[in-house]
Write a structure and sequence with these properties.
11% of the residues lie in helices and 31% in strands. The chain has three helices and 16 strands.
Length: 264
């Protein structure tokens, strides 16, 4: 008799969500509106209802109050949907959550005003940017897993905590460390020729044949095509700091030392 699979009322998988990063440099709505008009050039379809994350790291929050409802509405007029806030203070937490936003990376204590030593160059009140790699640091010599497919995205600098890199439609090749708290994503496979300490999500568009290769496996989470495995209690001892490949076998995430047939 054929085995009937039980119906699951809900299924949880890791999903890849790419968001526009908005760095605020002041909070006055008129200035922000003017800056947005300059950025979009007056084009109504410059953005296409993308998710957006607001970063407050570059403004002095000591004596500024933010009208979150008005800020959400302002960016909504430019077809940007605010979903989260980075670098908020503890005093802002209640208001942020009350307006339906989440806290990306937690909150921090209120900062005291800094003493200005030199006059800063004038700049726009906000910037919309993609995450960029951090400064270069030394990495161990690479192992030699299977080559990435043509059109791969290559990152030669370390991926720092809180940074997210997404290789859309291709493999991702990283020749430096992926630090704790970082997230690397690819529609294809991920190749890390250095320690992999953060989160790695391969096959983000559903490619079950994608793989993850790490010269030194120290990951917090690995995922293939939405199926994931976390290591809250640590990696299996035989895999720590080893050259490891990650693949998907049905609904199971398999890890094995590169060159070995044994799966974990």
């Amino acid at each position: 008799m054929a085995k009937i699979q039980a119906h699951k009322p809900v299924e949880i998988k890791i999903a890849t969500v790419v968001a526009v990063a908005i760095t605020l440099r002041e909070t006055e709505l008129g200035a922000l509106d003017a800056a947005m008009r300059e950025i979009t050039g007056g084009e109504d379809d410059y953005f296409d209802n993308e998710f957006a994350v607001v970063d407050l790291a570059n403004i002095d929050l000591a004596d500024q109050a933010i009208d979150w409802k008005a800020l959400i509405a302002l960016f909504k007029t430019y077809r940007l949907n605010l979903v989260a806030v980075r670098n908020a203070t503890t005093e802002m937490e209640e208001a942020i959550l009350a307006n339906g936003l989440s806290l990306d990376g937690g909150v921090k204590p209120r900062r005291e005003p800094a003493v200005e030593i030199a006059e800063a160059e004038p700049e726009l009140p906000l910037a919309i940017e993609e995450p960029v790699p951090a400064a270069v640091e030394a990495a161990p010599a690479p192992v030699a897993p299977p080559p990435a497919k043509p059109g791969s995205m290559i990152v030669d600098t370390p991926v720092r905590a809180g940074q997210r890199i997404y290789a859309r439609g291709c493999d991702l090749v990283i020749t430096a460390a992926v630090n704790n708290g970082a997230e690397v994503i690819a529609d294809g496979s991920i190749h890390v020729y250095a320690p992999l300490r953060g989160r790695a999500l391969a096959g983000a568009s559903g490619d079950v044949g994608a793989r993850i290769f790490a010269q030194s496996m120290e990951a917090e989470l690995v995922s293939i095509a939405g199926m994931y495995r976390t290591f809250d209690e640590g990696l299996p001892k035989n895999l720590v700091h080893q050259a490891v490949q990650v693949s998907l076998d049905g609904d199971r995430i398999d890890l094995r030392i590169i060159g070995s047939a044994a799966r974990t």
